[in-house]
Amino acid sequence: MFPELKNDRFIRALLKQPVDTTPVWMMRQAGRYLPEYRASRAHAGDFLSLCKNDEFACEVTLQPLERYELDAAILFSDILTIPDAMGQGLYFETGEGPKFKKVIRTEADVDALPIAKVNDLDYVMKAVTTIRNALGGRVPLIGFSGSPWTLATYMVEGGSSKDFRHIKGMMYKSPEILHELLRKLAISVTDYLNGQIKAGAQAVQIFDTWGGVLSGPKYQEFSLMYMKQIIDGLIRVHDGKKIPVIMFTKNGGQWLENMAASGTDALGLDWTTDMAEARARVGNKVALQGNIDPCVLYADKDVIRDQVGEVLAGFGNGSGHVFNLGHGIHQFVDPEQPKYLIDAVHELGAQYHQEASDQLDKLNNLD
Amino acid sequence: MFPELKNDRFIRALLKQPVDTTPVWMMRQAGRYLPEYRASRAHAGDFLSLCKNDEFACEVTLQPLERYELDAAILFSDILTIPDAMGQGLYFETGEGPKFKKVIRTEADVDALPIAKVNDLDYVMKAVTTIRNALGGRVPLIGFSGSPWTLATYMVEGGSSKDFRHIKGMMYKSPEILHELLRKLAISVTDYLNGQIKAGAQAVQIFDTWGGVLSGPKYQEFSLMYMKQIIDGLIRVHDGKKIPVIMFTKNGGQWLENMAASGTDALGLDWTTDMAEARARVGNKVALQGNIDPCVLYADKDVIRDQVGEVLAGFGNGSGHVFNLGHGIHQFVDPEQPKYLIDAVHELGAQYHQEASDQLDKLNNLD
């Protein structure tokens, strides 16, 4: 049994339940822009050692919470743990991003690939439980995974890519081979996220970093369909609590209606999508998360406040908005800056939840 | 006086005049995927020498026309000729993309920057005239420029960027400095494109490669507004012929309505935007250019044909569609492959212009 949750704004907003103000967290909030993170990483040796040791993972997960009034913590891990557990041999070269010792290019490569076993990802489950305990109910813990399409891009390209020519070549030439790869990944991701939920994750996010490089029909066939399968297979209530799901496709702003019909509780938006239009398009179907340009954090306090105000006003009145950046925080941001953003969200957000606050006050007076 | 234009399908489609079939060209059609291009480049010494010598520029511009039934030629040049003419010191490092010796970061940097003089870009004008003469009226010649925002990203970042933190930092911190830079660039681009038109360009395209990294309001303020200024200042009729303008913002699919109101004749679309939806959204305001995924060229002939058919059917009946890739052709494409795409466009495109063809037949019978 874990300690009771004290700040549940994030979970409530995802479920469109009344909140006192808009909750906020930042993608990649535990990361290189924090000197304490860089120290932990140096101490651990390298990035993967940081991910694979639950004490280190816990340490860096909690670091941003010491600095800022964040409404959620997110598991510190890498999106490529699943391909690594499938035997692809994940490694990092300085300044080069992730690489794999094996690449997947042929039918035989895909056939030889096992479903990732949660047992082989035990270090992640351990980290989730360690962090959840360390949080002591302060804020909820988010678990996460890469989407099947996004994981497949790294596995087929052998690392990061600009043109995605190998995986798209496969998609156009031998779609059935790619579907088989994505099928295996969808099962692996479902098991992985359910493992995280059982280990203590109170919400989960699927990061579809590269779905936006596809055409609309190909996005639906090769990315969205598999995210739907995962969502269908997820544990949605655990220990008597709803476990909300967030789906985030970077550069997916043209397909919000399709994404909103996937069964997800919330959609993450990048900053290219207008928040007011997005809300009008998805209606009451899903909550929205986002979506300020991470580069706003290079500006002065007043500009940050104005830009926060615009995003909040874009969503407007009522619950169903989790404030976030439209993508991960940059490594070059001065760690003093996010404070202005986070405090502005809470302060300026309250006006959009007035009715809810009045109700909460009444309930408190009844106590 | 230049020779009369024999194949005017491309110009007619941009002006939404009847055509016998859908015209097609490919962004970056003169480029590294062609062995004859690589030979010319080796002969010239390097990429910039290729651009700066009108005989070489003409040679490589015509190369793809020898292989494929293209309906337009595009000036071979670099988008960064303008910042180079402003004294930024453009150079290329192998495998690293473009770099500048000077970067623009401060108000003083911007104030010191001259408007680019067409005289300093005489090598481009000379190339345009040489190519136009060499084409002998076979197909029209497209001139082009980068958009002010896109040029500014390279000038402020000092080269290519993934996060655009310097220019966006400037945009959020000191928007007036960035506006002054963009103002100077808009004047420079207008003069540059008008110079190309006078030298022989029969249509012009503005490449806004990086407009799509902005939020909607910032796109309108920092990219679209300056492209509008350019379009307002362009020569639209030259030697008695209309000179159509194409505006292409990569990843701009969420803002088509705004772009269509800019005064442009046509919008270029990348492959993430659905052609049928795009046509429905812009109505009769502009022609559309695009938008097959360049990765389709890695597939087999039949798949290429199917995918071409889908894009053509997406646009549907009538004139106003110029077929193109959604972005530049990749350097790894087998040069045999584009033939399948181009021939499929002409063959499958004809059915969407049946009425026009009947009219053209009647006119021919009257002769």
Give a verbal description of the structure.
The structure is a homodimer of 367-residue chains. The first copy, chain A, has 367 residues and is α/β, with parallel strands linked by helices. Chain A is 48% helix and 12% strand. Chains A and B meet through α9, α11 and α14 of A and α9, α11 and α14 of B.
What is the strand and helix layout of this fold?
The structure is a homodimer of 367-residue chains.
Chain A: H1 9-14, H2 35-44, H3 47-52, H4 54-67, E1 73-74, H5 81-85, E2 90-93, E3 97-100, H6 107-111, H7 122-135, E4 141-146, H8 148-157, H9 165-173, H10 175-199, E5 203-208, H11 216-233, E6 237-238, E7 241-242, E8 245-249, H12 256-260, E9 266-268, H13 275-282, E10 287-292, H14 301-315, E11 321-325, H15 337-349, H16 354-366
Parallel strand pairs in A: 1-4, 4-5, 5-8, 8-9, 9-10, 10-11
Antiparallel strand pairs in A: 2-3, 6-7
Helix pairs in contact in A: 2-4, 4-7, 7-10, 8-10, 9-10, 10-11, 13-14, 14-15
